[in-house]
Write a structure and sequence with these properties.
alpha+beta, Tick-borne Encephalitis virus Glycoprotein, domain 1, five-stranded antiparallel sheet, four-stranded antiparallel sheet
Length: 678
């Protein structure tokens, strides 16, 4: 099977080349037989990529250390779950995994449109073929997972200890699923630009794919934050690392697109904006992949120095140039069907929202690539640290939070004074009440106060919108509260699923504001010694050392310190942190020692223990952090994911093309009634 997999990689490359050639030829010549051949070749590309992937998994589980990738990222004593995830632990395997998802998405997109969008599908298929061909060529020639060693080692090197974590088992696949999903909207945008079918047709085809991208990027980013928090030992979850930023950038542009697409559907506006956002999302994905895989930056997330980066840089330049030319030649076709009638309208609020998102994107992009540019220009790499990102993005983030609450409250086209008074009264009261309560409780930090003021305002908006919709259903259909709530969301999934997403965003901002109050303490503790500290809430904690212990577990040797924890004299249990030295089957150390933190979680805060080293057999150096509201980061991410599922869930509806935009036809009277106040 390993040999079959190796050969299948090359067959997949040939199939992608065939897909590209005959699809574009069929479209240009109007030959349905060539178009059909290209689509079938796309299916074949996925099939052979799947065989290539299965072959590599077989090599991993059979410990075929003659293959360089297997020897570099696994060992005979590596737990089975991490033997499976080793597929994407290194450059070559992760490239093949990328191609597997890409060809799967491409095959699904082609199959789903086998009876629709036929005018642009040859170019959509051809574009997906080009992207697949590039990744297959990069995999086969630049980072081949089947590369053989000149000699066969007794055992493999094993997996980096920091990757032997459940978060890293799930984090990369989720990000890949999100990254790669941008390829399909990009292909439809190219197809629409080539055929000049730039009205409703291409929007309907890409909306769900954009949601898929947003959904998986959201999950992947949150999982990455969790992994960094529990594995890296610095008590934080976001450091504005270049690779972290690389996942954040397309998330911002996809989010902007999902908002602006509603304006084009409703009013036929922002047509240029939407095409640009789709193209930009794909290009940012390629840029992020270049940053991650070139080795041009040093990061715990990045791959080692590799010439693969040159492949991505060349592809990025070519794709940027071609799409820029294509968009520039279609500007007349992208003229809006309507104009902005008022700066105080829902359209304007969405536009402001998008401008803020793009502002955050630009600031983050500039800070990310500046070290690279400075090294190219001056020869010295000038690092841009968290202070820059925080100083620029924090105000923009607060403005974005405010717009999250403002947008749903303003009417389409032009808001009246009466509309503003009716809609804003209770959300504003909720925000001000939140501010007053926090000041009364002693909170004085300006950033935190503004954050919670706006959070209260947005929650007030969301509650008001749900209350109006539920009330309308109860009056019209005499339904109970629970039934009305469920049916309201079921009949208006995009709208109310979006509100649930916004609620998750509010929770994230509340959690971020909690970082303003984090405290910590360091100590050297012998067995029986204790250290006391106060947390941000004023509670007194006592940590008493229970001593050091050493033992062997799975594929590692462990040195652990355990602390007995009390809060205001009340026992809170034991808290342990470990130093781990991973070994191979011969008991020889591999990689540098890693740290496993101990976390005592609660809704209020995390007590975060880091074992920084042992002075002797009795004395441990520890670092203890009090991190407020961290749990709400993970809960907020879950809420956003739930909202995303609701928005993506299929809903029966029909769409009509009117004046170049999609007119959504509501499925029931309750839709109109629920939105009457908007």
């Amino acid at each position: 099977m390993i040999l079959v997999g190796e050969l299948s990689l090359w067959v997949a490359l040939l199939m992608a080349a065939w897909t590209t050639t005959v699809s574009f030829s069929g479209g240009l010549q109007g030959r349905a037989d060539l178009v059909k051949s290209g689509e079938r070749a796309m299916y074949a590309t996925f099939f052979f990529t799947l065989l290539a992937s299965i072959g590599l998994w077989v090599a991993l589980f059979t410990h075929d250390f003659s293959i360089k990738f297997v020897a570099s990222y696994t060992s005979a004593n590596l737990p089975k779950v991490y033997t499976f995830t080793a597929f994407w632990a290194g450059q070559a395997g992760s490239m093949l995994f990328w191609v597997l998802i890409l060809t799967l998405y491409s095959a699904i997109a082609v199959f789903a449109n086998r009876n629709s969008n036929r005018g642009m599908m040859p170019y959509v298929t051809g574009t997906l073929g080009v992207v697949s061909l590039f990744f297959l060529m990069t995999t086969a020639f630049g980072a081949n997972p089947y590369e053989r060693l000149d000699w066969v080692p007794i055992d493999g090197r094993g997996m980096n200890p920091q990757l032997q974590n459940p978060g890293m088992a799930a984090h990369p696949p989720m990000l890949y699923l999100g990254y790669i999903a941008t390829s399909v909207p990009f292909a439809f945008a190219v197809g629409a630009l080539i055929t000049r079918q730039l009205d409703a047709q291409w929007l309907g085809a890409v909306r769900r794919w954009a949601l898929v991208s947003w959904f998986f990027l959201t999950i992947g980013i949150v999982l990455g934050m969790w992994w960094a928090y529990v594995e890296l030992g610095w008590s934080g979850y976001w450091a504005w690392d270049a690779v972290e930023n690389s996942s954040f950038l397309p998330w911002l542009t996809v989010t902007a697109f999902l908002h602006s697409i509603m304006i084009q559907e409703k009013r036929g506006m922002l047509r240029k904006w939407n095409v640009t956002l789709v193209v930009l999302s794909f290009l940012l994905t390629i840029l992020g992949t270049f940053i991650t895989r070139s080795g041009i930056i040093e990061s715990v997330h990045a791959f080692a120095q590799s010439n693969v980066g040159n492949w991505f840089l060349g592809f990025l330049i070519a794709a940027t140039a071609l799409t820029a030319w294509l968009v520039s030649t279609r500007l007349n076709d992208l003229q809006a069907k309507a104009e902005l009638e008022s700066m105080v309208s829902r359209e304007a609020a969405f536009l402001y929202n998008n401008l803020v998102l793009i502002g955050i994107c630009f600031a983050t992009l500039w800070g990310t690539i500046f070290p690279i540019l400075s090294e190219w220009v001056k020869g010295d790499k000038i690092t841009v640290g968290p202070p820059f990102f925080n100083s620029v993005n924090a105000p923009l983030g607060l403005l974005l939070l405010a717009l999250t609450g403002i947008g749903p409250l303003i009417a389409w086209r032009k808001a009246s004074v009466g509309n503003l008074q009716r809609q804003f009264t209770w959300p504003v009261i909720a925000g001000v009440a939140t501010l007053v309560v926090l000041i009364a409780l002693g909170m004085r930090d300006p950033y935190a106060l503004v954050s919670y003021l706006l959070a209260g305002f947005v929650i007030g908006t969301i509650v008001q919108e749900f209350a109006k919709g539920i009330g309308a259903r109860r009056r019209m259909y005499d339904e109970g509260l629970a039934v009305a709530s469920v049916r309201l969301v079921a009949r208006n999934r995009r709208r109310y699923g979006g509100y649930i997403v916004h609620f998750g965003v509010v929770l994230l901002f509340c959690a971020f504001a909690g970082l303003m109050f984090k405290t910590d303490v360091t100590a050297m503790l012998k067995t029986g010694e204790k250290v006391t500290a106060k947390d941000p809430y004023g509670h007194e904690w006592t940590f008493t050392s229970q001593g050091l212990s050493s033992f062997e577990q799975l594929n590692r040797r462990v040195l652990s310190v355990t602390l007995d924890v009390t809060k205001d004299g009340k026992p809170m249990g034991l808290l342990s942190s470990e130093k781990r030295q991973h070994v191979n089957t011969q008991g020889e150390p591999t990689f540098e020692p890693s740290t496993e933190v101990g976390i005592l979680e609660s809704l209020q805060q995390d007590v975060y223990l880091v074992f920084t080293g042992a002075a002797d057999r009795e004395t441990a150096a520890v670092h203890i952090h009090f991190n407020p509201l961290v749990w709400w980061v993970w809960f907020g991410g879950i809420i956003m994911a739930i909202g995303g599922v609701i928005v993506m869930w299929p809903q029966a509806q029909r769409a009509e093309r009117e004046g170049g935009y999609v007119a959504q036809i509501p499925m029931g009277r309750e839709t109109e009634a629920a939105g009457a106040g908007a």
